[in-house]
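Async update (no meeting this week)

Hi team, since we skipped the sync, here's where things stand on the single-chain job. The sequence we agreed to prioritize is pasted below, unchanged from the tracker. I ran it this morning and attached the output directly underneath so nobody has to dig for it. Comments welcome in thread, and please keep replies under the output.
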Amino acid sequence: MSEQPQSQVITFSRLLDRAMRLLAQRDHSREELKHKLQQSVQRTAYMQQKAPETITEEQMEKVPDWCQENGWLNDERFTVRFIQSRSRKGYGPQRIRMELAQKGIDRESIHLAMEETSIDWAECAAQLAERKFGLPLPKEWKEKAKVQRFLQSKGFLTEDIQAIFRNIDDQEPM
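Output:
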């Protein structure tokens, strides 16, 4: 019978080092950082063909706490930057809210950050539609529906999408 090697508990300093390297690359949410630390330990064990080191619950809270106390980890800052980044990449508010929730940001924080942002979502939707479909945007129902489905898949709200077509209809000569 072969013995399984005992997994060792990873030290606080090694776990903190991994957290600092992750946070030096970009902002992370608290939950995302914890998840990535766990992945990092497992990936290292796999690459070295060893049993993964164990991370205690205490360490899993202590490391993010230390990072937060020292200004390396801030969920509010992460949320604002994430919203700005994803909006520049052509994603709408619904998609961004969903992604933030998946990253462990609570609904209230998401709501506050979305309220504080100065992003004109209708304008973002219009720019994205223009880049994808060109100008003038289609006026026939079948083609309009294609644009609407595309924008909805990117997370834009129906009222923002409809505003694009209202503005086009208003600009038509009579």
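Quick observations from my side:
DSSP finds nine helices and no strands in the chain.
Residues 12 and 58 are 10 Å apart (CA to CA).
Reply here if anything looks off.
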